[in-house]
Amino acid sequence: MSAYLPTLKQLQYLIALKEQGHFGRAAESCFVTQSTLSAGIRELETLIGTTLVERTRRVVRFTQLGDRIVEKAYRVLREAEELAAIAQAAGKPLSGDLRMSVIPTIAPFLLPRLLPHLRREKPELKLYLREETSAAAVESLRHGHVDCVLMALPFATGEVEQAHLFDDRLFVAFPRDDPRDPPSTIDPDMIDETRLLLLEDGHCLKDHALAACNRPELRAEATMMGTSLHTLVQMVDNGLGLTLLPEMAIKGGILEHTNIAARPLQSEHAAREIALVWRKGSPREKEFRMLAEILQHLAQQEG
């Protein structure tokens, strides 16, 4: 075997530079000086025998080969991390570090209720949480920045494994004084598309809501401007329209101290699937399935 192989540290520096697009910020993210990071990347280029990064005063531009090597570097680092995970999984499962992304329409409503229970059941588990949209979370999973993702399906996740936790029903939320307030459920045909407020692009709940209503004109007419469910609730509470909320947000108290009523949406797909997702072939699959069972059980208890 050649003694002149790239080091993991050099690959980490290269990835950091790609993600940050700036030598100073990349060095900060790696907790090294800029000169150390720059020297590490130059050593890597010397080893490979070609330029990976074009350096100018204002721009850091990766060559075509540099981009290809970054993609491979992600995979190499991910495999290196999984070497340690194999030993950990063979020892005491669900102990040590675990990095999990959670989407914004789940994190503030489910985690405060579940995490205290999880800490009691698995006190040796160090769960590091990262809140990001579904697309960003899937990308973080692919690049090895996180080990698993707590998210809502359906969503294009690529090659992953998943465990179903529970279904989260969708509700229509509107001002209490609305004269069209029905006694029980709301049919999609009853929704006024000119008053519908939804999350802006990037939030999968918007697509789940539109799919549940199955009315193509809603996508064209609805106002998509909410940056969070709390923002949408404030808009509805101020008489600006109506919106769709997941049941977990309502159980989490998002409508407390508001003048908003909520009724279940009555349609064939009026729910989103909450699932735990991880990389296909991960050596920690048994741990993730154990975690999924715990989360599912705790959600049922809370339900």
Briefly summarize what is shown.
The protein is built from 11 helices and 11 strands. It has 303 residues and is α/β, with parallel strands linked by helices.
Could you characterize the architecture of this molecule?
The protein has 303 residues and is α/β, with parallel strands linked by helices. The chain has three domains: 8-84, Orthogonal Bundle (Arc Repressor Mutant, subunit A); 87-165 and 272-302, Periplasmic binding protein-like II (D-Maltodextrin-Binding Protein, domain 2), CATH 3.40.190; 167-271, Periplasmic binding protein-like II (D-Maltodextrin-Binding Protein, domain 2), CATH 3.40.190.10. Helices cover 45% and strands 23% of the residues. It has helices spanning 8-20, 23-30, 34-48, 64-90, 107-121, 134-143, 204-213, 216-221, 229-237, 247-251, 285-302, and strands at residues 53-55, 60-62, 96-102, 125-131, 148-153, 160-175, 196-199, 223-226, 242-246, 260-264, 271-279. Strands 3, 4, 5, 6, 7, 8, 9, 10 and 11 form a nine-stranded mixed β-sheet that branches. A two-stranded antiparallel ribbon has the order 1-2. Strand 3 (96-102), helix 5 (107-121) and strand 4 form a beta-alpha-beta unit. Helix 1 crosses helix 3 and helix 5 crosses helix 11 (285-302). The radius of gyration is 23 Å and the shape is globular. The model has no long low-confidence stretch (mean pLDDT 87). Keywords: DNA-binding, Transcription, Transcription regulation. GO terms for molecular function: DNA binding; DNA-binding transcription factor activity.
